Amino acid sequence: MSRSRFSLGVTACLLAGLQRELLLAVRSPGNTINPLMFFVIAISLFPLGGGADTVFLSSIAPGVIWVTALLAVMLSMESLFRSDFEDGSLEQLLLSPQPLYFQILAKVFGHWLVTGLPLVLLSPLLGLLLALPAQAYLPLMLGLLLGTPTLNLIGAIGMALTVGLSRSGLLLAVLVLPLSIPVLVFGAGVVNAALNGLPMAGLLAVLGAMLALALSLAPLAIGAALRISVN
Amino acid sequence: MWQWFYKLGSPKYFYDMTSGLLPWLYTITFFLLIVGVVWGLMFAPPDYQMGDNYRIIYIHVPAASLALGAYAMMAAMAAMHLIWKIKMADIVAKVIAPVGGMFCAVALFTGSFWGKPTWGTYWIWDARITSTLILLFIYMGVAALRNAYDSTSAGAKAAAVLTLVGVVNLPIIRYSVDWWNTLHQSASNLSLRAVGANPPEIWIPAFFMGFALLGLFLIAIILRARNEILVREKRTLWVQDLLQNEIEQSREPSHHA
Amino acid sequence: MFSATNLFCERDERVLFTQLNFTISAGEVIQVQGANGSGKTSLLRILAGLNADFTGDISWQGQAVNRRRETFNAGLFYLGHSPAINKTLTPLQNLRWYCACHGFSDDTAIVLALADLGLAGYEHIPCHQMSAGQQRRVSLARLQLSVAPLWILDEPFTALDKQGVADLEQCIDTKVRQGGAVILTTHHALQLQCPVRVINLDELQGVGA
Fold first, then answer.
1. Three-state secondary structure call for residue C59
2. Chain B residue numbers touching A181 (CB-CB < 8 A)
3. Which domain holds residue C92?
4. C124 and chain A in contact, CB less than 8 A
């Protein structure tokens, strides 16, 4: 057997994993679009339920946008491991000789590119719906840019723990929502600080620190959880 | 020391050892409870600001600290189970979750019943109250995850991973809730924990009650762990012998006469 | 090459096997037999490192596998019940990812392997448009791409037609002749040219302690 093989390093393996994740998103666009639609629809319910007074709306806007983003991220998690678990690709991922830690990072990053990033890009529009003052748009986007990857990583832990269970949707919420509170507090805090003209660099730094911590530790927990789930 | 630790990892040894330990624990806890309750309710002087309301701290403060301490213990057990696959560690981790959650609930209830006369409302989004509430959510999550698994061993490992994720997250939650609270300061300066600044007549009974509740906590853990051991080891010879003896003893009327 | 010592596994308080010992060297085939529910799949998953509910030691080239997981994975090919084929992707995309996970990229080899299994022209068709047997073949194409010396195959003959079965048997024979080792389960009567050792799990069932 003398085939010409191009051996690949870890980086190329990660790129292949990322490419696969993006291909999957293209092939099943619902996985990307549905969380976004949820994001928009849920936010448009607040004025309908709470009143369309602009002062009231702009006062609840930071919290509402962040809570809804958190829920949208959580709902999008289902597509991260579910199909791979069902068709056995997850087993092959765990049996790959490449380091699991980086493969998981590549997978979550790919998932964030197709679900988290669109949320960030869409958020100004929703700010508009909720009468958010102009100075808060950039902080809102920056906060979501730093916060949604963390939410994705935390959600991935919950998803990895529950992917082997038949009805896991609500359980995922019970596990993940309490763990996401710090991101929510500081994410909405950034927008509130911007609204009140307070400095927000420190708050963004805290969000960044949480992201760094999640990037370094969450893949370990996800890997351990996936091994339990395929058992 | 290590050998003792290693032996404690065996369910049979744990069962035998706690059989001897429990009567002592009952006695000590009962004594502490009586002293703490009588002293705290009847002899400790009323607080100059809160009157008699403050007396609820005798349950509230120990319950709140035990709820947090129990999580640390559960996390240590989870780590021991994941790293060394010690069966007994998982049994203890399993039985702590509902007890720890219960202590959270007790802390929250006593806190809100103290809050009504003091702050005029049952619930305030105070930093400590909020953290305790989130801790309760995490306890519930750990227990729910374990129950969702059909396989005992998979459920145990999944719960252990979640417990350890919680350990990393809890200080961050605590910190973020504290920070958030400084923004939305709504609670009055009157805090239940500020009672520590009071004279010794007030906090010494709290000391007794703290240990009494610790005793109750340990009793609850040990009794539940013993049950769990019997369920998990029901096929082993020693459990079958034990049950046989129990049945024979209960049949002999002379023991009870 | 690969050995298991003193394996013990119980599931739902039932002992599946106890004191299971074996060694497999280059050029050998082991067939695991047993009734339904006797733990064949559990054993193969334990050997592959997917199931951790066991006691005992498994070693690969003299070293415990749990210490050198990535080295062991590089030498292992595992085929489970599920095909590990994503149905929305094409065979080429599926196999490219598989190859990348194993550290190489070789589109020509993928196309050749697919053609060998009678799937020439299907490279760019999403797998959900293919029949169950064809999907199975996509999964088996990985066998031809794999250079791993140890194959663990769980029911590899499922959903294959006569020709497919014959091709796969030939593939296993070739592997063994080239110095590979194969552990497999099947309900199909194997017709291999190489000798097959049998481990019967029904004989290994222990009594509850």
1. strand
2. 134, 173, 176-177
3. 83-147
4. no
Interval B169-202: pLDDT, tens: 999 999 999 888 877 654 444 555 555 556 777 7
Say yes or no: A89 contacts chain C, CB-CB below 8 A.
Answer: yes
**In chain B, how many domains are there?**
1
Interface contact C104-A1, CB threshold 8 A = no
- B235: which chain C residues are within 8 Å (Cβ-Cβ)? 13, 208-209
Task: Verify whether the Cβ–Cβ distance C208 to B153 is below 8 Å.
Answer: no
Q: Model ipTM?
A: 0.91
From residue C52, alpha-carbon distances to A60, A228, A231, B210, C148 in Å are 49, 8, 7, 42, 22
Residue B144: domain span: 17-195+213-238
Q: Is residue B250 part of a domain?
A: no
pLDDT tens, A126-180? 999 999 999 999 999 999 999 999 999 999 999 999 999 987 778 999 999 999 9
Which of C147, C173, C189 is the C-terminal boundary of a domain? C147
Whether residues C70 and C154 fall in one domain: yes
Strands C29-33, C76-79: pairing is: unpaired
Instruction: Check C50 against A27: CB less than 8 A apart.
Output: no
What is the number of domains present in chain C?
A: 2
Given a contact as 3+ CB pairs under 8 Å, which chains touch C? A, B
CB within 8 Å: B140 and A174? yes
Residue C7 shares a structural domain with residue C56: yes
- Whether residue B247 lies inside any domain: the answer is no
Quote the crossing angle between the two packed helices A10-27 and A30-50, to the nearest 10°.
60
Pairs of residues, one from chain B and one from chain C, whose beta carbons lie less than 8 Å apart: 7
- Pair C19, C118 in one domain: no
Same domain, C131 and C68: no
pTM, entire model: 0.91
**Over 90: is that where the pLDDT of B143 sits?**
yes
Strand-pair category, C76-79 with C150-154: parallel
Angle at CA of residue B130, ends B47 and A73, nearest 5° = 175
Q: Which of B49, B71, B84, B15 is nearest to B202 (CA)?
A: B49
In a shared domain, residues C12 and C36: yes
Question: B103 in a domain, yes or no?
Answer: yes
Q: How far is CA B23 from the centre of its chain?
A: 20
Pairing outcome for strands C2-11 and C55-60: antiparallel
